[in-house]
Amino acid sequence: MHSHYDYLIIGGGIAGVTAAEIIREHTNDAHIAIIGEEPHMLYSRVLLPAYLKNRIPRSKLFLRSIQDFTEKKIDIHAGDRIVSVDAAHKDVTLESGKIFAYGKLLLATGGRVKEWGKPEDQPYTYRLQTLDDADRLFATLSSLHNPLVIGSSFISLEFLEIFLANKITPKLLVRDKHFFGNLIEEQGGRLMEENFLRLGIQTDYNDTVARIDMASGAPENRGVTTKRLHAISTDAIAVGIGIDRDVEYAEKSGIEIGKQGIRANEFLETNIPDIFAAGDAADYYDGIAKRHASIGNWTSAVLQGTCAGLAMIGMKQAFMRVPSYSITNLGFQITALGDTAHAEDAVVRIDTERKQYERFFFRDTVLAGAVLINRFADKAHLSKLIEQQVDIAQWRDQLSNNSFDIHTIPVIG
């Protein structure tokens, strides 16, 4: 172990590990270290739901071992948290009191689940961000009978399927008037609702929790009361309401913070020389959408880790990728593509018999993003249209027609 590293990576997730390994591929003698807050070696967050659904054993989650890092001459400092960066002296201080100097620094600290509930409610509250979260839920699944899922996110969908896979019928509470209120409109919402009802999931929309009664009284009296005064009986609350970027340590260091994390350019460089950002923690410049963005998914973290690692050794290349997230869940295949949050207009097409739905988001005459339900075959072509900023004005009116094949819109290559 050293006190000075040529390349210091803060974050033991896939973005940080990928960057470290990319650097090692191009440098034989450089001192490289990864500092991770979690005590575990790299594991797949993507596979946590499969573990909880009893589809894979826990051992299959792990992607690297200590031996793997030893063979690549990458030092690992696990179970320690960064508290500050001194950019002038080029060193970082950890919660343990250790100080490490660096030549180049990558900040890939990911995110933390948003706070929810009071301290006394936490024994009955479950999240799905870390392996420890998954282990805790796994240990209690057999004793749960009446869980409540809160939120309208991909994680919420995972919670629903986890419970059903364990022969537990959950309830669902959503603050919007339908599920995925930020992605789909009412027709898509009805399609999702029909699927929930088919599976016996009791749903409650346009409402939020006002009071929690979990920590006191007999188990049969535990539950929540909503703002609309609905009393919901439950023995566990699974919360899927997103994450906050873990960037507090950077706020007093002079590192610029954006709306969604550490501000970085298209090369994942921050405003301070020799400091880079990647993964969930990065608010990077998206050259396709022409705005800063943050993508919280596994594939993007791998690609950003690669890009950041190359930039740190002087092989800069712009990170250019259409954001995407796909899930196969509760019998539906759902994909979100591109920028769905800043569009000026949208076109919808739906085939209720086939349970298919698409919503196309526009910026002027250019496709900015899309949401697909059971239309996965369109994903690759739509991604190219978004990436190449193809003017599709002449096809716009046809997009609402289920018989129109979007593959007839030409792309380059």
Question: How does the helix and strand content classify structurally?
Answer: alpha/beta
Give the % helix.
Answer: 10-25%
From the spread of the alpha carbons, the general shape counts as: globular
Biggest sheet statistics: 7 strands, mixed
Terminal CA distance: 48 Å
What radius of gyration results from the CA coordinates? 23 Å
- Count the strands? 26
Low-confidence segments: none
Mean pLDDT: 95
Tell me the strand percentage band: 25-35%
| Count of runs of 4 or more consecutive helical residues | 8
Structure description:
The protein is α/β, with parallel strands linked by helices and 413 residues long. Helices cover 20% and strands 30% of the residues. The chain is built from eight helices and 26 strands. It has helices at residues 14-26, 48-52, 66-71, 131-140, 154-165, 186-198, 298-312, 379-387, and strands at 4-10, 32-36, 74-78, 82-86, 91-94, 99-107, 111-113, 125-126, 147-150, 171-173, 202-204, 209-213, 223-226, 231-233, 236-239, 243-245, 257-258, 261-264, 275-277, 282-286, 291-293, 324-329, 332-338, 345-351, 356-363, 366-373. Strands 1, 2, 3, 4, 5, 6 and 19 form a seven-stranded mixed sheet that branches. β13 and β14 (231-233) form a beta hairpin. α1 packs parallel to α7 (298-312). It is globular. The chain starts with a strand and ends in a 26-residue tail after the last helix.
